[in-house]
Amino acid sequence: MASKAFLITIILATIAAPPAFATDYVVGDDAGWKLGVDYTAWAEGKDFYVGDRLIFNYAEGVHNVYKVNGTAFQQCTVPSPFEALTSGNDVITLATAGRKWYICGVGNHCASGMKLVITVASSIAPASAPAPAPISGGPVMHNKKPMDFWSNWKLKINF
């Protein structure tokens, strides 16, 4: 009886806690932020949400990162040097929804393709229907949809 009460307490505490679904994306994956990487292809198929983080890894002093608007992105217009991120390990938290543009402002790097555009969604979309319980194993999460996770738990627990 005590173990059942403990299990219920744990489940309720877990449900009440806000889910932390933020994802860290290393721009360019293992290649990082450098010339010769197709950042359009890298971003394709990825879902970016408010709270996710972009991590730009590059050789310090060789590249930089600017957050720009769509026009500056298209024309590779470099803003003031004071706006550049230059650490070689720059982390940008996606704070708002919408289109986001990033370029390298060194030489002709932007014109050579060292630029990234993504679309950030405001929140995690709710699941349209509960996911079926997996045939074996534990709960499964798909596309950062909390309803899939909780639906699986609900299907597996019988009180």
UniProtKB/TrEMBL annotation:
Keyword hit for Cell inner membrane: no
Assigned keywords, A-Z: Copper, Disulfide bond, Electron transport, Glycoprotein, Membrane, Metal-binding, Signal, Transmembrane, Transmembrane helix, Transport
GO cellular component, as recorded: plasma membrane
One Gene Ontology term of the molecular function aspect: metal ion binding
Gene3D superfamilies assigned: Cupredoxins - blue copper proteins
Bilayer topology term: Single-pass type I membrane protein
InterPro entries linked: Cupredoxin, Phytocyanin-like, Phytocyanin_dom
Superkingdom of origin: Eukaryota
Keyword Signal: yes
Chain ranges of the Phytocyanin domain: 23-122
Signal sequence range: 1-22
UniProt-annotated location(s): Membrane
GO BP, one annotated term: response to symbiotic fungus
Protein name: Lamin-like protein
